[in-house]
Amino acid sequence: MLTCNHPVPPDRYNDRVEEHLRVTGFYHASQIGVVQNQKALVNALIERWHPDTHTFHLPIGECAVSLEDVALILGLPTDGLTITGMTMSSFSALEAECLHQFGVAPRKSECRGCCIKLTWLQDLKENIQLTDEISIQSIGQYSWGSACLAHLYRALCRASRYNCKEMDGPITLLLGWAWIRLPYLSPLPREPHSFPLANR
User: Fold this and answer.
1) 53: left (phi over 0), alpha (psi -120 to 50) or beta
2) Residues of 108-136 as b/e, b for ≥16 C-beta within 10 angstroms?
3) Which residues of the chain are under the pLDDT cut of 70?
């Protein structure tokens, strides 16, 4: 189902959590509400995505989601260090990395190939608290917007394959971009002048 989790309402954040969200650059993204399932629009965009050029081919010409779109739609930071790392090619490599990063590793049943199921990560998130101030400060040094855009491009390329039946990735970014660039498809905004634009 193409939805995103509903955020914690702002009045339920304590001051410390809000401060950490602001320091790490995720405060605006944490304010984005639920995006309803829009399968028809997502499927139409995927059909027009060309993996070779990383652009949508529309009757009006080629267009693509840009880094500026990510900053305006999601409010994620787009400057800073790049987010890189090795690609896990086996369960044993994934297991070792999880042990190193989190101190716990998923079972094979909690993985699909060399990918971890989101349910395991959600359970992990509930049990691990980030309390190290140095770690919190370092999170804000990365260009999360660039990583988000790269993830969207990769997800669109995978979804455009003839045998693919589902799509992961930042669907909220894709839908927000489509509604801004193709306004005749967009729902009526609740707050026309809100930021990030995904809140509209």
Assistant:
1) alpha
2) eeebeeeebeeebeeeeeeeeeeeeeeee
3) 1-14, 37, 85-89, 113-114, 125, 128-136, 187-194, 198-200
Q: Which residues pair with 61 in a beta bridge?
A: 58
Give tens-digit pLDDT for 103-119: 888 888 888 766 788 78
Query: What amino acid occupies position 9?
Result: P
Is 38 within 8 Å of 175 (Cβ atoms)?
Answer: yes
Distance CA(179)–CA(186), nearest Å, equals 5
Give residue 70's identity as a one-letter amino acid code: V
Domain residue ranges in the chain: 10-83+142-199, 87-130
3-state helix, strand, coil in the chain (%, to 5): 50, 10, 45
User: Per the confidence metrics, is the pTM higher than 0.90?
Assistant: no
